[in-house]
Specification:
With 326 residues, the chain is mainly beta. Helix content is 3%, strand content 45%. The protein has a domain at 6-44 and 64-231 and 314-325: Thrombin, subunit H (Beta Barrel), CATH 2.40.10.500.
Length: 326
């Protein structure tokens, strides 16, 4: 099945990007072309597995570690076991898009989710056993996913009638509740350590925005950044700062957030990366799903610099990545 990946849309945004005339925040002028999505399959049974771990695991001990590079919608996810090896050890077929797990950063415990257009998101037990599938409304195309400390799952909508909105699945189950946002397309999302959800995308006037849904509220507020973001990418808490990856610049921006303003504190340069779509911060490293280089790369974090390793495997326009511990 020939499908248009999320990054093809994002690539068009990079090509047409322009800086905002107003101070703070970021602005891009994207193509408004719609995306077509592929389908993914998943089993319906649910095993008893932990939904969230507040503690960040490291790479030592007896547990096995798995990393996933998730390719374009309707394709596959490649499985790795770095640092044991940088070679591909398996594949999950008929998936594609972004991924998330039950920690804010570090290595998830036992489970992860893969979002795939059109309309579905599937939960897996490592290394690749599908245990549950949830669906967004039939005409929607999901983009990001995140899990909070209570085990609720939020899925962003890239395209469709509710494009730009969020769908919250209480206890990662049920039909989900749709939350309206100012965005026309939602790209990436992540919770901070206080339970606030941050997410980004573009508005209907095609400007790039960072938004927040505070814990316990469904009201959305726009967060102005103190620097210009060329093309807003992954949003993730790293243990100290809220981070936003700039897909256009191959940089990760580390922010403190107060009220409606995000103040830039540090920049992590991902030297040699072309277009990191989703990034995942683990323990002392960050994984990059690099659509531009058609690769999966590993960088020191927060030091950045050149990649310390590159996954060796088969890729088809990487869009997502996540790391999970057995």
């Amino acid at each position: 099945m020939n499908t248009a990946g999320f990054v093809r849309y994002a690539g068009a945004l990079v090509a047409l990007a322009t800086c905002s005339a107003c101070g703070g925040g970021s602005t891009v002028t994207p193509s408004s072309a719609a995306l077509d999505g592929g389908y993914m399959n998943g089993a319906a049974s649910l095993n008893a597995v932990p939904r969230f771990s507040a503690n960040v695991p490291d790479r030592t001990g007896e547990s096995k570690i798995f990393e996933y590079i998730v390719d374009t919608y309707g394709s596959y996810a490649s499985i790795f076991d770095y640092p044991k090896s940088d070679k591909q050890i398996g594949k999950i077929k008929n998936v594609g898009g972004q991924a998330c797990t039950n920690v804010l950063y570090g290595y998830g415990k036992k489970i992860f989710w893969i979002v795939a257009g059109a309309k579905e998101i599937t939960e897996y037990v490592v290394p690749k056993k599908p245990i549950k599938t949830l669906s967004v409304p039939s005409d929607e195309m999901p983009s990001s996913c995140s899990i909070d400390a209570g085990g609720d799952l939020v899925v962003g909508i890239l395209n469709g009638t509710h494009a730009g909105d969020l769908v919250i699945f209480k206890n990662a189950s049920g039909s989900g509740t749709t939350i309206s946002t100012p965005l026309a397309r939602e790209y990436f999302s992540g919770y901070d350590n206080q339970g606030n959800l941050f997410f980004d995308g573009v508005t209907r006037d095609f400007t790039s925005h960072l938004e927040e849904m505070p814990k316990g509220s469904t009201k959305i507020k726009t967060i102005a950044t103190s620097n210009i973001i060329g093309l807003a990418g992954s949003v993730q808490w790293d243990g100290t700062y809220l981070t936003v990856t700039d897909m256009a610049a191959s940089k990760m921006y580390r922010y403190t957030v107060s009220g409606r303003k995000a103040t830039l504190k540090e920049i992590v340069l991902l030297s040699g990366a072309s277009e990191c779509t989703q990034t995942w911060i683990a323990t002392g490293i960050v994984f990059c799903a690099d659509a531009g280089n058609n690769a999966g790369e590993i960088f020191k974090y927060p030091a950045g610099g050149s990649a310390i390793a590159t996954f060796k495997g088969k890729f088809d326009e990487p869009l997502g990545t996540v790391a999970v511990k057995q």
